[in-house]
Amino acid sequence: MPTASLNPLVRRARHLVWWCLVFVCACARQHSTPFMNGRAEAERHYAHGRYSQAAAAWREAAEHAEHQDDRVEAIYRAAAAHQRARDTPAARAAYLEVLRLAPKGPRAARAAFELAWLDIEGGDPVRGERALLELTLRYQDSALAGRAFTGLARRYENRGGPSAVLALIEQMLPQLEQPELAEQVRYAQGRLLRTTGQTERARRVFLELAEDFPYPQGAYWEDALWHAADIERGQGSPRAALSHLERMLREVEPAHFQGSYARTRYAEAQYRIAEIYRDDLAQPDRARAEFRKVYDEHPTSLLRDDALWYEALISWSDGKPGVSCNPLRRLVTSLPESRYAPCAPLLCDQIPASERSCRPYIRRTLEVHGTPAPRIRPGAPTQSSK
Predict the structure, then answer these.
(1) Tell me: the pLDDT tens digits for 102-142?
(2) Which residues are CB-contacts of 173 (< 8 A; sequence separation ≥ 6)?
(3) Residues 6+ apart with CB under 8 A from 257
(4) How far apart are CA 300 and CA 158, in angstroms?
(5) Less packed terminus of the chain by CB within 10 Å, N or C?
(6) Nearest 10 degrees: CA dihedral of 225, 226, 227, 233?
(7) Is the N-terminal amide bond of 216 cis, ω within 30° of 0?
(8) Chain centroid to CA 147
(9) pTM of the prediction?
(10) CA distance 126 to 350
(11) Sign (positive/negative) of CA torsion 223, 225, 231, 236?
């Protein structure tokens, strides 16, 4: 269609797009031919495992780079190639050069990370661990800061136990400004406090963590509430434990399209609520209802068959075998591969015998709940006849 026949607004839009393309092309970084040739040669050598030749080619490319960030990238790639070639002195020198040329550049944290591990693996763990700590605090926005902390904490724990890591964390906490890193370190602190028997302090750390990093941004939010609830239960406060677990489950939200917002602890929290009502508060009817929620509200959980089984077992233990049939029918119908499915006829005589036999360890749980396991009806397979 001729340009003259187009709507004036369309013509103006086309002209605007054309000038934008001209501007982008004019501003695009231009690479010299020697730099491009050197980069291609380096990548070819590296792909074929010729790491020393790759490092030399990257060095050559760096000499021809017309932009500082291209030069830094080429030197970094040379350092990585030297490292693969096990030329530690050359790799170390190149990584140091990256940090000297671009201490705040995109490769700085990685160069510092590699330098630290070169020192540790090269026989100077003191300098390497100090470098890991400096990296963690200096490059807090980098994903490598979390990895550096994890590696450093593991080395401290191997050498001095959890108390050594706690001392390290106490040193770090006042200097942490980046939220994701601070959350990771504080969660590790709570876990270590619990490991060392400082449960009350651990409980406070976990609850403060859940408050400071709430759903949905908090990566450890549900784990913090889970551990706080576990501590409360261990201290004889089941109601307080329930409050933390129920707080977690109040944030459950459905996904209106594909996928799910469900977090890994949700089904576990619902299951634990049922256990608390059953074991700590002696409320079997409420426990049965809470076990059913695991099945109804968490369709992807591996705990669904356990929940139906224990819902049925509560009724059976209370002398209500007829009530136990409802969850067991759901079990054998919707989860026929469950380990509990062959055992369903033991609690409900309305369910036909299974071709599989009930495992002995499950039959023993029936005795634990106060009533000997009933005999398998005639015609049903036994363990010995399997």
Answers:
(1) 999 999 999 999 999 999 999 999 999 999 999 999 999 99
(2) 182, 185, 186, 189
(3) none
(4) 37
(5) N
(6) 100
(7) yes
(8) 13
(9) 0.82
(10) 70
(11) negative
